[in-house]
Amino acid sequence: MWFQWKKQLKKTTKRNEQSGQEKNGINRTVESELQRNIETVRNTTGNSVDVVIRRFLLGKEEGIPAALLFVSGIVDEEMIHQFLLESVVQLTVPSSYCREEALVYIEQKIAAAGKMKRIKRWSELFLALMSGEVILLIDGVPEALSVEAKGGERRAIEEPVTQLSIRGPREGFTESLATNVAMVRRRIQNPHLWLEAITIGEVTQTNVSIMYIKGIASDEIVEEVRRRLQRIRIDGILESGYIEQLIEDQTFTTFPTVYHTERPDSVAANLLEGRIAIFVEGTPFVLIAPTVFIQFFQVVEDYYARFDIATALRFLRVLVFFISLVAPSVYIAATTFHQEMIPTQLVIAIAAQRESVPFPAFVEALMMEVTFEILREAGVRLPRAVGQAVSIVGALVIGQATVEAGFVSSAMVIVVSITAIASFATPSFAIAISARLIRFLLMVLAALFGFYGILIGIVLMTLHLCSLRSFGVPYMSPLAPLILSNIRDTLVRFPMWALTERPRLINQTNMVRQGNDQRPKPPNQPEKEGDNH
Amino acid sequence: MTLVHMMLLSGCWSKKELTDLAFVIAVGVDKKDGKYVLTLQVVNPGNVAGATQRGGGSSGLPVTLYTSTGDTLVEASRKASKKISRLTYYAHTNLVVIGEELARDGITEIFDAIERNPQFRTTASVIVARGRTAEELLSVLTPIDKIPANQIIKTLEMTEKVWGENLNVHAGEVIESLSLAGKEVVMSGFRLDGNRETGKKTKNVQSIDPYARLRAEALAVFKKGKLVSWMGGEEARGVLWILNKIHQTALNIGWKEKKEAVSYKVVRSKTEVTAKMSKGNPVISVVIEAEGDVGETLAPIDLTNPTQIATLEKKIRNEIQKEVQKAIRHAQREKSDIFGFGEIIHRTYPKEWKQMQRVWDEQYFPHLPISIKVDAFVRRTGLRNKPYFQ
To answer: Rounded to two decimals, what is the model's pTM?
Structure first.
């Protein structure tokens, strides 16, 4: 069955490729007759109304028939009218030039436009046309000239929505790859910041770029990222999530092994640590690889704030992650197995609340957790105006009415609320959502085996975490395997001057971040003798 | 594989919902017609103040009493299930009450069940119901701490801390004392004042002056697991001085012709007991260091005068010494080494102890020479130096 299905799959993809080739006429070249060329374009694009074909006569005197092709909406139409069309029409091609030479003449003469390219193949022509370039066809010339004039309406640069910070730059990535790349370029003004472009998606032809700092990033990892990206054969890439799922080391895990961010400063920081950024056209989320577990507890603000505060906050975040993971299961275990562990007064208070609750603790907890997940999902998807209604219903119905009706105990509501707040306080949504899943698993274990079950769950989770790799880098590093020099920037963050080394990934050569004696000193202090020599 | 087996084989046999448990907060033990009478004070969670948010449970009582009899304590405990709808759960039992009759009869055996049961905490306090059965003592409703057992424990803890005539003894300590040759059991007694019958009813806590009250009483001195005498007042405090259990207390000292003229508040104290051998006979030395403030004077004393203070301190030392001597005399008379002097000798001179061990109570302890050295000083004199009166 499996093989048959696979064979079939192969066949269909082949057929698709063939038909695609025919349609695009991949091997055919541009003909010399303008009319026929225009017809080819018309036929291939199915007379789409947004494909504009603007015929005109080239030159002032006799005029050579020519046409400008572009897709309205994705080109800068102002630029086409002001510069391109005007200058091309008013251009006087010396009559001594033959028509082929005219094209070259135009190419050299139009200085207003930026990137220009001569195109012979239809496939190239359509790719250029669809990505927002303007194509100039001249009658009698079996070649086209493409002029870059990308534009159109795009979202402006705004504050990132998912990764807010109190201190730090306010700009976030947009859906435009070029803008995103520029934002990082502005932060790292260095010729060694390399950018590689690659097109992924048989149908969508999405631009994807790999960015890294040559000399800091390990060549091996760059090669590995490149290899994994090139391996992708898919019809379309609509978001960096597609890429993430196609290049991650391990699919069957709830933990994300590729980090994604909306902040250019975060990307710049990661590049400086020797990691690689993957930009995808059409999404503000940039992927970072390789990724380690601890990265999900670090935010850019840790480095903008002073070290003691950053360290305290990191401890808090780990605590919060742990609470969001185990709070309901600890409640279940303590109330159904280990009543002796709760202080007498508290156990009596909890028992009093549970007196009228008709369900066992596990069912109660499961009910409330599921209700909360429903509420949260509703809150995310609903339009903002209705969202408020959801929160009112959630607070009143779930919070108060169920307790008053005696369906759940108020202790349970407290536990669920703490869990919810804790999971919101986890800095990365990607890791918070995996904690959400594991939480239910732990709850089942707690209901069956008490604390013993929770312990087993956590041990298994730790084992699993230690087995994960991200582009060959152990997921739990630098904690397991322990890399002492990198511990300085994990759960704790040492003062800025003490972070002298880059995190160890794989086979890097350039590990030194800064000099050894960066520690600020009070002025006029006589330097130690050792420093002078 | 191992993990899978670990999970499958353990199962959820110990699972118990909170609503299936009867929290036994206090256990009372008596003896009647040769059988043990077990009294269980079970918490009625819905009716404990603070937890009554709904269901209108305020009318009910916070605890309920169950009694059952049996030849052994375990038998009695299991038999109690005939009356209780839930599983008796002893993990939160904080108090064990022993009826005086049983205490005089001997308490050695009853602690086995307590120690053997994994649920039972050895940190539970143990008291003797003076002149009563445990059942009677446990059947009184108390006004401030709604659960009577808590009322008793908290009273005991508090009075030990600020007055120092009572001792909060845990079950574990009792077991230890019972098993050691050089230490006898001493624990606090509790008395029931007033009308017992009304004490059982809500009426008791609805009155500003409850009809029945519980009161911490003298110390019960045991000998070989049997209650032999009661020790109260200054004698009792002497015991606590020796046991290094005094945290705070107040002493009255005479000044010139006036008796009980100055009140000395002890705020810190430390006692060290050491053993020595002198000519083959053990000698115990007790060194007490106390520190305190002048709390009140009823006589005109000039507290700015160092010599006056020195005189005061001397009187304080004598007072403490007097209390300690009283306690020792009482214990020696009863031939009951409640201070654990034997254990100290055991620890310091293990070899010699072996010979003394058997006859310690009869031959050595009653005539044990004990030197008492007290070092007390006045740390502060309060906000006032000279009293306003002359």
So the answer is: 0.83
Q: Do B51 and A348 touch (CB under 8 A)?
A: yes
Judged by a CB distance cut-off of 8 A, whether residue B70 touches chain A is no
Q: What is the pLDDT of residue B256?
A: 84
Same domain? A105 vs A199: no
Domain-located, residue A155: no
Q: What residues pair up with A138 in beta bridges, in sequence order?
A: A66
Whether residue B46 lies within 8 A of chain A, CB to CB, comes out as yes
Residue A161: closest CA among A380, A468, A449: A380
Residue range(s) occupied by CATH 3.30.300.210 in chain B: 235-380
- Tell me, yes or no, whether A213 lies in a domain: yes
d(CA A295, CA A277): 14
Note whether residue A503 is domain-resident: no
In sign, the C-alpha dihedral spanning B244, B245, B249, B252 is: negative
Q: Judge if A434 and A337 occupy the same domain.
A: yes
Sign of CA dihedral B113, B118, B119, B120: positive
In a domain, A324, yes or no: yes
Residue of chain B whose alpha carbon sits nearest to that of A341: B91
Per-residue pLDDT tens digits for B162-187: 999 999 999 999 999 999 888 999 99
| B contacts of A448 (beta carbons < 8 Å) | 7, 11-12
- Point out the residue among B7, B15, B121 whose CB comes nearest to the CB of A337: B15
Task: Give dist(CA B68, CA B83) in Å, integer.
Answer: 9
Higher-scoring residue by pLDDT: A485, B83:
B83
Residue of chain B minimizing CA distance to A445: B7
Query: Looking at residue A27, what is its pLDDT?
Result: 62
CATH entry, B235-380, from 3.30.565.10, 3.90.45.10, 3.30.300.210, 2.10.109.10: 3.30.300.210
Give yes or no for a contact between B226 and B104, defined as CB atoms under 8 angstroms apart. Answer: yes
Residues A264 and A364 in one domain: no
The pLDDT of residue B171 is: 94
* pLDDT tens column, B117-164: 888 999 999 999 999 999 999 999 998 888 999 999 999 999 999 999
Cross-chain Cβ contact A447/B12 below 8 Å: yes
Query: What integer is the mean pLDDT of A403-430?
Result: 88
Domain holding A261, by residue range, is 177-291
Do A351 and B45 make contact, defined as CB atoms within 8 angstroms?
yes
Q: Do A339 and B21 touch (CB under 8 A)?
A: yes
> For chain A, percent helix, then strand, then coil, each to nearest 5?
50, 15, 35
Mean pLDDT of A322-347: 92
CA–CA gap between residue A320 and residue A405 (Å, rounded): 31
Specify the pLDDT at position B13. 63
pLDDT at A68: 87
Question: Is residue A449 located within the same domain as residue A320?
Answer: yes
pLDDT at A528: 54
User: Which residues in chain B have Cβ-Cβ distances shorter than 8 Å to A347?
Assistant: 18, 23, 92
Q: How many CB atoms lie within 10 A of CB B78?
A: 14
On whether both A183 and A94 belong to a single domain, the answer is no
Of B6, B47, B92, the CB nearest to A347: B92
ipTM over 0.90: no
Domain identity same for A468 and A388: yes
- A361 contacts in B (CB within 8 Å)? 17-18
Same domain? For A457 and A319 the reply is yes
Q: Which two tokens stand for residue B261?
A: 């003229």
Alpha carbon distance B222, B224 (integer Å): 6
Same domain, A332 and A239: no
A355 and B19 within 8 Å at the Cβ level: the answer is yes
